[in-house]
Amino acid sequence: MAKTNNHEFLKRNTRAAGEQDMYDVIVIGLGVAGLSAAMYSARLGLKTLAIGEMEGGTITLTDTVENYPGFISIKGQKLAKRIEAHASAYGTEILIDKVDDISSVVGKTPHFNVLCGKKTFLGRTVILATGRELRKLEVEGEVKFTGNGVSYCALCDITLVKGKTVVVVGGGNSAVKEANLLAKHAKEVFIINNEPELHAEKPNMRRMESYVKNKKMTVINSNEVVRICGDRRVEKIVLKEKFDGRSEIDADWVFIYIGYSASRGLARKLGVELNEKGEIIINRNSETNVPGIFAAGDVTNLEWKQAIIGVAQGVSAAYHAEKFINNKLI
Q1: Which of 256, 282, 306 delimits the end of a domain?
Q2: CB 219 within 8 A of CB 194
Q3: Which residues does residue 96 pair with via DSSP β-bridges, in sequence order?
């Protein structure tokens, strides 16, 4: 595979800036949207570099994916690995690193400078597939107990909840899906939802209802966690409103699934137009308002955040990046 770490990559790329190779496409983000964009870009014969901190993106935090065409059921990590292997097979260079800045360079050969630490990479076009950042609950005890009973990834900590009492905070599809996963191992699961009802896909709701029926899971709607308490580890949570006459629930783990916010820092620096949610506004060709800058996946303003949608956007971005480059070179 064409993947490498930062040290090895920089060792191979130590020429002066004037001698540096120009990439046709630089993809920022290694989730399924970014990897798909890189795969298609490289397949079109474009010199492609994909950079990101998290291999596979947030789908790797999902245990099982059941709504991706072609796979009735597949592990999130496995799906991401397959797309990454496909991108590498066409010659995509993959760098595990953080992108600190992107700037536009005008002149005889207009391009973008992508800065990673002390190294700058040159690209004719950039595809932003930076995904979303997990939202924090922002209550007392959350920061203190992160890693000691507060978690944002059920799959990561599934082996640690056996026989434990677990609280899942959130009411969307991710919260219900991960609560179902946790219920397979935990002694008891509480879902705390600040809305009147849960909002999840029907298959996940049916699984959840079976756990509720068997008294393995309790759903508490129209309520909130206002404090997470304990000594060295999580011991209990405090509710805003009383439930069954009590305002506290003894718990060993708290998993937070209250949504995401778009990772838009790089886009904002480039002058890319964002909506009120901070998402990148794109057209049907995955183009932004900045020529040469494209976007795909959860960072964009498409309402439905699904892996298959992000993959399609990534392919569209690569296709139209190739058209943009060819028009510039004519």
Answers
A1: 256
A2: no
A3: 5, 52
pLDDT at res. 17: 41
Beta bridge partners of 248: 238
Q: Which of 256, 275, 302 is the last residue of a domain?
A: 256
Same domain, 315 and 286: yes
Structural domain boundaries, residue 309: 3-133+260-329
H or E segment at 146?
none
Where would I find the H helices in 112-172?
A: 142-145, 154-157
Residue 264 burial (CB count, 10 A): 21
Identify whether residues 29 and 109 lie together within a single domain. Answer: yes
Q: Which of 265, 274, 266 is nearest to 300 (CA)?
A: 274
Q: How many residues does the chain have?
A: 330
Over residues 224-256, the pLDDT tens digits come to 999 999 999 999 999 999 999 999 999 999 999
108-135: burial string, b at 16+ Cβ within 10 Å, e else: eeebbbbebeebbbbbbbbbbbbbbeee
**Which portions of the chain are predicted below pLDDT 50?**
1, 5-19
**127-150 pLDDT, tens per residue?**
999 998 888 999 999 999 998 999
User: With contact defined as beta carbons under 8 Å apart, do 280 and 267 qualify?
Assistant: yes
How many domains in the chain? 2
Q: For the segment 187-217, what is each residue's pLDDT rounded down to a tens digit?
A: 999 999 999 999 999 999 999 999 999 999 9
Check residue 242 and give its pLDDT: 96
Show the DSSP H helices in 161-272 as ranges: 173-183, 202-213, 265-270
- CATH number for 63: 3.50.50.60
Same domain for 89 and 210, yes or no, is: no
